[in-house]
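Rotation project, supervised by the postdoc (A.L.). Task for the rotation student: set up a whole-complex structure prediction and record inputs and outputs verbatim in this book. Inputs entered:
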Amino acid sequence: MDQQGAQTVWNSLANAIDEIVLRNSSALSFEELYRNSYNLVIQKHGKLLYDGVTLKISSHLSTTAQNLASTPDASLLEEVSMSFDEHITTMSMVRDILMYMDRTYVETHNEKSTFIQGLHLYRTIVWEHSNVQCRVSELLLKAIADERIGELTDSRDVLKKILSMLLQIDTAENSNVYERDFADAFLGRTQEFYQMESSEFLAENSASDYVEKAKRRLEEEKLRATALALPPTTVDELQNILHTELIKRHAKTLVSMENSGFSVLLKDETKIGAMREMYDLFAKIPESLDDLRNALCDRVKEDGNALVADQERGVSDPASFVQGILKMNDRYTSIVDFAFRGEPKAKKRLKESFENFLNVDTRAASCLAVYADMLLRSSIKGASEEEVSILLNNVILVFRFISDKDVFEAFYKEHLAKRLLTGRSVSDEVEKQLVSLLKAECGYQFTSKLEGMFNDMRISRDTREAYKNYKRERSVQSKGESSVDIDVDVLTTGYWPNVKVPVCKLPQSVQSAMDNFSDFYLKKHTGRKLSWQTSTGTGEIKASFGSNGNIRTYNLIVSTYQMCILMLFNEDTELTLRQIASKTSIPDLELQRHLISLCTPKYRILRKSSKGRGISGDDDSFSINDGYKSNARRVKVPLISMSSLKDVVQNKYAADPKVGQALTSLQGSSVETLPPQLEEERRHLVEAATVRIMKARKQLHHNDLIAEVTKQLQSRFVPTPQFIKKRIEGLIEREYLERNEDDHRLYMYVA
Amino acid sequence: MFDDIADPDDDSVATMEGISKLCDHLGIDPLEDVKILVLLHKLQASSKPAQITREEWMNGCHNLGTDSINAFKALLPSLELGFMERAEFRDFFKFCFKFNLEGTHKTLDKELVVALVELTLNDRIAKDRLATFQEFLNITKDTSYNTITLDQWMSFLDFSLECPDLSQYDEEISAWPVLIDDYVDYSNGMKM
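Outputs recorded:
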């Protein structure tokens, strides 16, 4: 085929294209057109064909462009969309015709394939026409902006179509029109819009209202993005912008705002729903959740410190303190469960917050022990099994927060000892229940001594039975032994709280009863040693008051010391304090306490020579109050409280430092310092753990050793790294360990 | 030579009296001059504190090649602490502690420590470090520091060499003895 022939063929094709454009293609024969283009290519006229098509399409597109350029704004979007649809239809058909060219000429000459060329031409001629692209972009953005401010706009459909047009062009020829002519500006305008709206709204409205509005905006944008079929990259960036402008930027304000911020909501139990709404919003930016968690912790800290302050000032007693903690726990747990949707991080922070304010000193440990004591002495009377369970579990709940668990154990043991020895616990079962709950928390080591105490009581009961039988047999054999009846509890020293008080001088009849028991017991258990604890125990004395004609006899139930004191008056009518002290060997302060308890207005069994509540001095003298009367036959004489004693004694002996010291130690350890035996026990435990660990590991770095020791001991107490370090130094000095010569942080076990 | 300084009651050892005599011969002041300690260290008088045995003396002299007082005198200049390398100085420093122990004690009194560090560390660590440490020991009311252990002694040296700058010192993670932590507190407190 020569040039002219080719030209002719081309002309017919060109006409065909015109017809296609006009949608008159039904009159055409696909076969013929295909054949024509095929021939042109085969006959080496590919270039003619290609260039011709390009020119032809270009010319049509120019017309389109002109038309669009002069189309008014109101209908521009629709027109552009339609023109593109038309163009696609045209190009599909043209492509079909030119398939052979696409497969051969286009490939070898590195040209754009027909369809892609069509898109390219559309872009450069129509879209990028000076009066088309700018207006269309602006119209798109305006439509979205209008929607955002609630004005009615055209259907989103046409917007979607235009965006998909741009995307299609970009995909086809690797261009950038979607971003350049829409997305960049869209994201930019979105950011400006929300930056302003959010700030303005927040300035005028409450936090909860803001959260509500933010949620609605997020929803709205999401729907729009779907409706416009925005590509994932745009959606992601859009989301980032929204989250930044709506949430991140205002996170701190939303928390700290007066009257409606998250911090304020936390104070009001009814606002738990609003809290959750805020949580859900913040959850979209995980880092900002820390702001909420921090607010929670601050709140707990404030409440906790207030609780502690009340307790310190004496406004609330130990039981109220514990109940306050339980209430706080309930409250904040439900906030975490509901508002924070039970997320683990918030749970952890909450636990830490409690641990922080509760462990500033040993107050929590001692109050909890008092609270438990109260429960086991009285509160659980008449409570159902379920109620008891709840109460005990509450104790354990608070117990878990306490890091100085050994302090609690020490206090608990003291209270338990008193309850067991005076028979004051409501139920043995419940006592054991609590101990086994503690065991479940801390292991056998923690409760072994407590269980030992229970055992001692049980064995003592059996021993008493055995002793009764023994006495019966013996009194059958040898009559005339005047001794009194005694009931003895035998306590294993290691289990019970340490009380190192020397034995006082006892009435002969009592002493011989004790000796009899000792004989009996030591015969059964050779090798054991008994030390009598005269600072505890009670005695029942038959006392007669009055003179001929009017003699009143009562059974007085008094302490061991009081018994010793009263028995003295069988020998002497009047005794001074000094004399009583030397005849009984009762320690000074206790002597005063027990003596004064016998001279109170309500129980004036003895008459004191000095006036006033206290004892004036060593020469103050006492005698039996013959005029003593009581309504009851059996009189239980109470001991005055430690605080009462303190008041009375301070008046007289205020200057004597020994007295003050004794008073403090009688009252039990103060809250701030650790009981000395616990301090020593802790040192010992740390050393033992350190040696054990080093023996096993042979050598260990400082950090690892500290961590291991802490881990091993933390169910009992939490040693500070400094504390452990001091013990390590001690062990180095005693040559259990040594420091590595080259690395001072490495410790080595010395075999 | 050894007979001259040997202890009158037991001629297998030379005690502080004999050593003092040796110092006289050498013309050095045992209280002010650290060279005698260096010498004793080089002679490896390490079996017991405050003495050197005949055997140690013989071996030491043999190793050093000193067969007369003059030979010792000639050796004196080389005993300057500045000539010692780090590792050797460390050994020497340890020796100083052990040599100065009293009887069966395992610790040194703090007054002695203050004097000894002056003697031994004068040109080996920063002057202000040395001075503030001595101050700290003198001023501290903590009775557990009335005596100093070998661990604390060696740690002070290592610490001074490893941590010239105290601004980065983190007490929380420090593995140095608590004495050092307290010293740093003191030192930093002063700077404020």
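Student's summary: The mean pLDDT of chain B is 88.
Supervisor addendum: The first helix of chain B runs from residue 2 to 5.
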